[in-house]
Specification:
The complex is a heterodimer of chains A (110) and B (118). With 110 residues, chain A is mainly beta. Helices cover 0% and strands 45% of the residues of chain A. Chain A contains no helices and 9 strands. In chain A, the strands form 2 sheets. In chain A, strands 1, 3, 4, 7, 8 and 9 form a 6-stranded mixed β-sheet that branches. A 3-stranded antiparallel β-sheet of chain A has the order 2-6-5, with no helix packed on it. In chain A, β7 and β8 form a beta hairpin. Chain A starts with 8 loop residues before the first strand and ends with a strand. Chain B has no helices and 11 strands. In chain B, the strands form 2 sheets. In chain B, strands 2, 4, 5, 6, 9, 10 and 11 form a 7-stranded mixed β-sheet that branches. Chain B has a 4-stranded antiparallel β-sheet with strand order 1-3-8-7, with no helix packed on it. Classes of the chains: A mainly beta (110), B mainly beta (118). At the A-B interface, β3, β7 and β8 of A face β4, β5 and β10 of B.
Chain lengths: 110, 118
Amino acid sequence: QSVLTQPPSVSAAPGQKVTISCSGSSSNIGSNYVSWYQNLPGTAPKLLIHENNKRPSRIPDRFSGSKSGTSATLGITGLQTGDEADYYCGTWDNSLGAYVFGTGTKVTVL
Amino acid sequence: EVQLVESGGGLVQPGGSLRLSCAASGFTFSSYWMSWVRQAPGKGPEWVANIKQDGREIYYVDSVKGRFTISRDNAKNSLYLQMNSLRAEDTAVYYCVRTEDSSSFDYWGLGALISVSS
């Protein structure tokens, strides 16, 4: 089981907003930058957010990230059917000496 | 355009070996950390290993230590993963990933499927 805990699923109607939490500890989120990835079925994960809250230029501003203490949050506004996917947080863990991904959250657009 | 193309995947028996290669283009390969990340069927991604620009810092997930070896050839813009003593639980799609400051994975290859089965 991962050291980063996410809710198994979240859902909302098109156009609405969802938030996904990622809970860790002082040895991972508390000490290092957090990234977020979108994983569509059958494709490689795609980087959405890096360094807690920075978006690559190709990522729309509907996606946002934040971090506070040992937790991080991904927000998606203006939800679209194309946003249905699994989402993972990730960061380095100083105690494990390894990069860790969260347990994953499935986003469903109702 | 950044491109990462993996090769060398396939079916192997338990205890066997395989070597994955990744050809990089569209960026200055020698300026980036590089990583291998795998994803087993129906599971989330799992970081496997990463290597610093000059190859002098290398890290592995505990489950592959002593069995897998990551390496790079900056002159050939290539990343490698030598996998020995393969187990059924190593079955996954293996992705070559450009790594930004060792903390985020910004470009991913299409992946290479490794199946370990008798």
